[in-house]
Write a structure and sequence with these properties.
Blueprint lengths: L2 E9 L3 E4 H7 L4 H8 L3 E3 L7 H9 L5 H6 E7 L10 H9 L6 E5 L5 H15 L4 E10 L12 E11 L4 E11 L5 E2 L8 E2 L1 H23 L8 E4 L4 H11 L5 H14 L3 H4 L6 H12 L8 E8 L3 E9 L11 H6 L2 E2 L2 H9 L9 E2 L9 E7 L2 E6 L3
Parallel strand pairs: 2-14, 4-5, 4-6, 11-12
Antiparallel strand pairs: 1-7, 1-8, 2-3, 6-7, 8-13, 9-10, 12-13, 15-16, 16-17
Helix pairs in contact: 1-2, 3-5, 7-8, 9-11
Length: 389
């Protein structure tokens, strides 16, 4: 029985800041961001969006009534949680109108958590092939204004419907995992922005990729050339390119050229959004499938998931005959229609997020076009609005 990703959909803000403009404002050469980091635009998340609304906006458009009836497991992977106790998945389940019998949990391990959720979901569906699971990686990457990590911010959510006989990608049953206590990136409970040792984290990322990639090949007996393309977690797109280059010596010149060409498609949409934390790998997968016309049914893709702290996993999936039918085909057009904001507007929005305090707060949602929005806080409870309810 095949189990894997049946549908794949994405949501982010309707706003972005141009990276060349941001570089100039920070007295940096634009190519440092455009080439050195590999980013062209960065999603700007307004106060009216958070982990919950991004997740719901990602999932709702792809779900049919039959899907909603069949879903009995909802997992939200995030490191942008809104509560130290209550799972964001509980809120998302209500907004989506899921069955009350659904199991709802939130998972955390930096950028890796959505992959943990995907592995749990496929095991669940293998045991219950008449059911479906919904896995969402939803995050807002915040390092602070005028910080070294600022150009690697962003935000959004990727929703994946997991089922038997999937339309998009049949997942393999084997993977290779590595987990160690590493202080390359963390966010203590008293911080609203992340702490990171940037160069160290980049080195750990590549070390982990090399370890789990080679471990997977040894474990399964698969050859590198059996993989049509490699898809990476992309906190910024240059990071994935560095990791890919470390694997090129394993294959011949023709395969190297093919992998590099596929990678350019896999990072195309990430260049326009920025860092998604838990969703970054899966936006790259979506970018690959939407923009790469050299892929075909039966191709096997290798996927590398990484979460600082640190945990990494390498696994594979096989493209299915009708994989385009399960994709968010309107995404490139939606990204092109976003509104550009100035650096000063971006800074105002960054500082206007719902404050971590007990007071009642109200957020102006008039300019937010999305179905699900955060309207504020009342009696220490976040207030969400479904405009279609």
């Amino acid at each position: 029985m095949k189990v894997g990703i049946d549908k794949l959909h994405f949501a982010t803000s309707h706003l972005y800041v141009d990276m060349a403009e941001l570089a100039t404002a920070r007295q940096e050469e634009p190519d440092k961001y455009l080439i050195g980091i590999g980013q062209s635009r960065m999603a700007v998340i307004p106060p009216s969006q958070d982990t919950v609304t991004l997740a719901a906006n990602a999932a709702a458009p792809m779900l049919t009534a039959a899907d909603i009836e069949a879903i009995d497991l909802l997992i939200v992977g995030t490191e942008s949680g809104i509560d130290n106790s209550k799972a964001s998945a509980i809120y998302v389940a209500r907004l989506l109108g899921l069955n009350r019998r659904v199991r709802t949990i939130e998972m955390k391990e930096a950028c890796y958590a959505a992959t943990a959720g995907l592995q749990l979901a496929q095991d669940h569906v293998r045991a219950h092939p008449d059911k479906k699971a919904l896995v969402i990686g939803s995050d807002i990457a915040r390092y602070g204004l005028n910080t070294p990590g600022e150009p690697t911010q962003g935000g959004g959510a990727v929703a994946m419907l997991v089922s038997a006989d999937p339309q998009v990608l049949a997942l393999g049953t084997e993977s290779c995992v590595l987990s160690e206590d590493v202080m390359d990136f963390w966010r203590p409970l008293y911080h609203t922005t992340a702490l990171v040792d940037g160069k160290y984290s980049s080195n750990i990322y590549i070390d982990y990729f090399q370890d789990v990639f080679k471990g997977y090949l040894q474990k399964t007996g698969m050859q590198p050339e059996d993989l049509a393309a490699l898809v990476f977690h992309l906190p910024y797109t240059k990071m994935g390119l560095k990791a890919l280059r470390s694997a090129l010596p394993l294959v011949d010149d023709a395969q190297q050229a093919s992998w590099l060409a596929h990678f350019e498609h896999a990072r195309q949409l990430n260049r326009q959004v920025g860092n998604l934390y838990t969703g970054s790998l899966y936006l790259s997968l979506l970018s690959q499938l939407l923009t790469d016309d050299k892929l075909k049914a039966g191709d096997r893709l290798g996927l590398f998931s990484y979460g600082s702290g640190a945990e990494g996993e390498f696994f594979t999936g096989e493209l299915q005959p009708d994989y385009q039918a399960g994709l968010d085909v309107g995404l490139p057009q939606r990204l092109a229609r976003r509104q550009r904001v100035s650096v000063s507007e971006y800074e105002k929005l960054f500082n206007g997020q719902l404050a971590w305090r007990a007071d009642d707060q109200t957020i102006d949602v008039a300019d937010d076009p999305h179905r699900f929005v955060l309207t504020g806080q009342q009696d220490e409870q976040r207030q969400y609005l479904d405009r279609e309810a």
